[in-house]
Specification:
Blueprint (H helix, E strand, L loop, with lengths): L1 H20 L9 H6 L1 H20 L12 E3 L1 H9 L1 H4 L8 E6 L7 E2 L6 E6 L10 E3 L4 E3 L5 H10 L8 E6 L6 H13 L7 E4 L3 H4 L10 E2 L25 E2 L1 H9 L6 E5 L3 H4 L24 E5 L3 E2 L33 H11 L6 E5 L5 H12 L4 E4 L2 H5 L28 E6 L8 H4 L10 H11 L1
Parallel strand pairs: 1-8, 2-4, 2-7, 7-8, 10-15, 11-13, 11-14, 14-15
Antiparallel strand pairs: 3-9, 5-6, 12-16
Bound molecules: calcium ion.
The site of calcium ion (CA) has 8 residues, from loops.
Length: 464
Amino acid sequence: MQNISKKIAFSTLMALPMVLFSDPFTTHIDIHQFLNHKERVVTEVQNSTRYFYRNFFHRTPRSYSRFKSGIITPKRLTKYIDNWSKYKPRGVEGRLVIIQAGATSDGRFLKSNGRDVVTYQIPAGGSCDPSYVRHDGFSNVPGAMITGEKMDGMINMFHLDPKKDFVLFAVGEGSTSMREVVRSAWSLVYWGWNKDRLAILNGSVDYDFSEHSGLDKYLVDTPDTPPAVPSNFTMKSLNKDRTDRHIYIDKMMKIASSRRQRGYFIADARGTDEYNGLIKSKTADITCGPNHDEQCYSPFQGHIRGAVDFPYTDLLVLNDQESDVNGDGKVDKNDASFRFKSPKMLKRLYRKKGYRRGDKVITYCRTGRKATLISYTSEMILNYDVAMYDGSWIQWGEMANRTDVNGSTILPQGSRWITDSSKYSVNLGYTDPIYTQSKQPYAINESSQSSKEIQREDRRYLSK
Ligand SMILES: [Ca+2]
């Protein structure tokens, strides 16, 4: 025991100079900066300290077979299903609630036992609704994080006890609903769900439980029916505020325009062509043009200054097909596992993209779905500090001093919210004519001083 304490004390001592003086935050702090930017420095020291503690007590396992939450293997899941009370992670009191997005290609679901393991189905599209909009105080954010009320509605639909139950999300088939499933899991993280009681099945049910795998005995034809009457739980009872996992356009502009962006690793999850501004970023709606029946595009393309090209598919294994899991008569990339790469490979991938130890990961994509895979990986697998710019390109790419085909000016010249300048964006390309939703649907409040209203509202909800 004494030896261990000595070892810990020694390691702490050795690590202390690192916390105080090492990158990414504190290398170039001199006394003037310290006096001028005391608050910033304090935050940065706090960040470094938090990073140190996160990583001192947490070591990412090399293989997913050791994960009991966050992301789990089919083998772990079969143990959970076979004998939940025996194999459940320590400290979990409640049930295993499996939420499967869509059936497998032959219409099947993970089996339950009607007692402490239940399986509910959600539509393959998950909880994702791009027409869901919230206002951040400056403009609308299409497809924003759901409100606390909606979150509570979701947990109560399935009687999820936020203080007891373990929730496992599983994708029925292929990769298409992966984004929505991870977004759902991320919403639980954001609203404070205990991370030790949350997981995603690594790979689709189709792949993991195919006949080929020998695990198809864990599949049944019908999922459980959700209770008829909703329960009355609330995420407020967890007393956990993780609203800092999302940032908004004002903060993103500050980070984008800061000179060296030291301490940030900004990941653009959309795809290389969108990153390079080579293809037009579409919005979900077909309400543009003079007759309001044309595809909407963002007025300009490119990426946020300092962001790296980090397509979310880079996180996944897309070439390990072994058998015809989707039953279309051929074995091709659509039969791949879509599993997450191993933690070791992910770490290497982040490093290759430019992540440096202690960086805060900032993620975005077009609507905030693809980017959640990077957010989730950072938070739940690698234990990196992460925040998501939820507005993403659907908001960012709109904020120009341009006139759309309907004759409306989006932002007036000189507005502090204009993002199509080299100060904020790179690889600028323009859509012409501008098929955009323009000012009205975005409800731009140009004179707004900040864009923190969603965060404020969510904090108010949690403290009520
Ligand atoms: Ca196939």
